[in-house]
Design a protein that fits this description.
It is a single chain. With 78 residues, this protein is mainly alpha-helical. 68% of the residues lie in helices and 0% in strands. The protein is built from five helices and no strands. Helix 2 packs across helix 3 and helix 2 crosses helix 4.
Length: 78
């Protein structure tokens, strides 16, 4: 996988986190608190211009807090 594809996939994951967070009616602060991460870190994960790669543990915690699955958050083909 090329570096540009990798970065685009990270952006897509971040956008999906933001989508499901908003769908759940949560603020970044509320989700960050539920997942035990900082709101700043969550903001970086969701930002389209940032390329942060969350750990699997963090992804599982985010998915659980949002009532969705990790596979939905990481389906970059969708």
């Amino acid at each position: 996988m090329r570096e540009s594809e990798y970065k685009m996939n990270l952006v897509k994951i971040g956008l999906k986190i933001a989508y499901y967070r908003k769908l759940a009616g949560m603020t970044q602060e509320e989700l960050a608190e539920a997942v035990d991460i900082s709101a700043g870190y969550l903001s970086q994960l969701e930002a389209p211009g940032m390329y942060y790669c969350p750990s699997l543990k963090t992804l599982f915690k985010i998915a659980e807090a949002l009532g969705t699955t990790v596979s939905r958050l990481t389906d970059v083909e969708d």
